[in-house]
Amino acid sequence: MKTLIAAYSGVLRGTGSSILSALQDLFSITWLNRSKVEKQLQVISVLQWVLSFLMLGVACSVILMYTFCTDCWLVAVLYFTWLVFDWNTPKKGGRRSQWVRNWAVWRYFRDYFPIQLVKTHNLLTTRNYIFGYHPHGIMGLGAFCNFSTEATEVSKKFPGIRPYLATLAGNFRMPVLREYLMSGGICPVNQDTIDYLLSKNGSGNAIIIVVGGAAESLSSMPGKNAVTLRNRKGFVKLALRHGADLVPTYSFGENEVYKQVIFEEGSWGRWVQKTFQKYIGFAPCIFHGRGLFSSDTWGLVPYSKPITTVGTIPLCQKM
């Protein structure tokens, strides 16, 4: 308002230079506000996915069970009935939605870090592929953005290729969360799903497997790149069985976006992590990023560090 008053005063005094200066100040303020708004939208877009990843499944399960005890119990019954009939859909590739994959929120998600996908080789639509993705990081944010959304234009860079990001099968037992994951082309990382996609879903399928899994996530920390491959060769056997090509893929910067507490071997914390990893399939860890309103405080928002995902030439084509 002061800027507008200054410009109006310049008109009354007949000083054109004051008008020009006042307008320049006005445009600079507008641009500054727009920049701040876009930055906040980027933070919100990342936070909504982090909260969905951590809490959506459990929260929806609790709400659904509570609904059974209310007058809306019929809604819960109908959803559970649907769940029974739809139980095996995730194992058959799920229900990908191009509308969800093209949401504007994912572009803000991409720009927050930023995340980019580097194409180094064309992929034939007559073949199927298994991407061996490293590192896991805390949440695999690079894998999600690049292959479960169109934010980095994966469909344009690899036309005719359908990417399926494989994650823990337990996530697909969670109500609502399973629908959210399937809409992005995410599927369970188990043998039945991979067998189906590589043998009964035609060609042009690319299954992205974060090979290191929970064990690799426990080594995730800024400045360190550790790859876990020991006793994890099952995806190679599946590729050989179905004649699929292996594509080694690495995300530089994936380990930089969160900091975590690393427990020493033999400590109680490490024992708890390994027990969960062995019997449940995931390893709980203590991690933190930046705060919602300040980068100086601890919070769930990841640090804005660049993530660059690079896939090499498919191994069989290279040989």
TrEMBL record:
It comes from the Eukaryota. InterPro entries: DAGAT. One of its GO terms (biological process) is glycerol metabolic process. It is a multi-pass membrane protein. Its EC number is 2.3.1.-. Pathway: Glycerolipid metabolism; triacylglycerol biosynthesis; Lipid metabolism. It comes from Balaenoptera musculus. This is Acyltransferase. Belongs to the diacylglycerol acyltransferase family.
